[in-house]
Design a protein that fits this description.
alpha+beta; eight-stranded parallel barrel; six-stranded antiparallel sheet; globular; disordered N terminus; signal
Amino acid sequence: MGLKVNGVVFFVLMMLVVVVVSRESKAVSNRSVTYDGRALIIDGMRKVLFSGSIHYPRSTPEMWPSLIAKAKEGGIDVIQTYVFWNAHEPVQGQYNFEGRFDLVKFIKEVQAQGLYVSLRIGPFIEAEWQYGGLPFWLHDIPGITFRCNNEPFKYHMQRFVTKIVGMMKAESLFYPQGGPIIISQIENEYQNIEPAFHELGPPYVKWAASMAVGLNTGVPWVMCKQDDAPDPVINACNGVSCGETWSGPNSPNKPALWTENWTTIFSLQKYGKQPRNRPAKELAFAAALFIAKKKGSFVNYYMYHGGTNFGRTASPYVTTSYYDLAPLDEYGLVWQPTWTHLKELHAAVKQSSQSLLYGTYSNFSLGYLKEAHVFQTKSDCVAFLVNFNLHGKADVQFRNKKYQLPARSVIILSQCNNIIFNTAEVTTQGSTRSSKVLQSFNDASKWSWTSDKIPDFYDGKFTNKLLDQLSTTKDATDYLWYIARYNSTSEGSNQVLHVESDAHVIHAFVNYKFVGKEHGNDQDPSATLDANFVPNKGENTISLLSVMVGSPDAGPHLERKYTGLHTVKVDGTEKHSNSIDLSNQVWSYRVGRYGEQYKIYSMEGSTRVEWRKDSLQNSGNQPLRWYKTIFDLPDGSDPVALNLASMGKGEVWVNGESIGRYWVSFKAPNGQPSQALYHVPRSFLQPSGNFLVLFEEEGGNPLEITVNTISVTNTQANDDEHLIPAQSSYQTEYNATIGG
């Protein structure tokens, strides 16, 4: 009897399982993403979507949940990210999806918080990222030409894209499978360089589109800045104001998508520049105008959180801090008034989404530089009234009612008569960021230092020409030594060492003594040095340390770009003295620094060299120095940063993790460093004994370095201040002075 009862119960349970599984399978099978001329269509419903870019490698897994939650609270529906090929396949066939590079974990966190994902696979991404995201080993593939109808490149591109799509499918992450990915991107802004490839460009565009679509992801594909994106791939816009500059979709059957609404003036986010952010009212104006004028239904903020360019990942001259200040700043803190002003815009647009997505559209002039855009259904109406005048407000009449439009503004009218949002009216107080000093390193006895020696002529490999730097270093280091010898018949007479380089920085030594340095800038990346010196009679050794501050990330033919020294001469100071051209003499070269080779930035590697405990008063402000000390984790939960304003140029590690390049000696026009505070994620730290190592190229004073915590308060009354405060001059409180 018991067996029969148990059998009945088992049968009933099994039937329930079948029903549940059947329902779940049916629910998944009914999930779909398509599009028409108005919007992306998710499960048969058009959607207005606001998206925010958050790049998983530019933060940490411990930060991801908070970043995504704050984006969701700010009215974001979609998290957009690139996929970083060179981070995932640094060596051909060897993959890394761990830690900050755990793409699947990041996407699942987005899914867990109920948001969609826009996955920009590329795999060329630019993104102000090292080599545009391409792994440098591609450079050495025989016969390769990047990003054109070239078989070796297409083979490796297809192999990587297929791998990423396969990973997403295996984890059921595309929307029709039950996942959050609703759209993917192939290539990136190719139209900018396509003419350089002549007849090899257009076939590549068609191939890339066909290859991507053929992977059968079940979601649409997009190409940004590609007006001729082949069907069914959607062409999308990147830029500052796509509502004003973009010609629109290349088919009436494709929606208007904006994949990059830039949240800061990126050209100023570079060493030697004074950063400025885009005002909240300007971001809101651009987004609202795109929705109104282009019938836009997808707006992505690039970036919503910029984060940190850890290690050597930044492209030339780009600061370690990335897109600070976006709606979420580098540290993941809410930045006002941008965050709230955009949140209010999102709510106002969503309130009128039915009219926007299904209403009849019309537009007409309200006078010079003034427009009305109307979306009307039988039961609802929404209007966008636009004033393009940069400096003057405008009085307009719309449907027998008068409105005053501030300069360069859009007002949104619910039911076409009630103002629900004005892009120019920013009511939230602005943020002020404070930096509190919790520890200092002014006790010289707690520092140790060692020099990175200048290589001997016979330490390196030999060549009879100046080598291309990236081809030689394989982009595994910023540094390459070039060493040559020459005979001088002069004794006691000044000579001039003339060096021209397509790298970014030159440090020059003659007979192992420093004689000069020079660097370029983001507008003229190359460097030219003229250094006076007095040669020895007879043999002299010239040692030149060439430095890259990021590998190129844009432009055609990256594989052909020359970097490094190309001209070296020794000139006499007398008008008719002979010039000695060393460019094609015998050169010895050595890749990287000795400290890099021994990995002395790690606790284990630091034991491989001899460190000195001399007073830093004798060793500070010297070039090519390594410094080390320890410090404890600051109390609390506020983000942590190192203030490196007293240093020059180099790189810094904490517990073996590189938190990035620093370059505080390259001042902005206002005399301040472009960046002095460098983010150390708390997940990099342990409660005590944190191992801090710096490599200083130029000479700096480590005794003035401090460990700070960062906080934000809302105190500014308006949105008129566009400058990002120089990070060395943020409001600072001295809480303690504790030896490291």
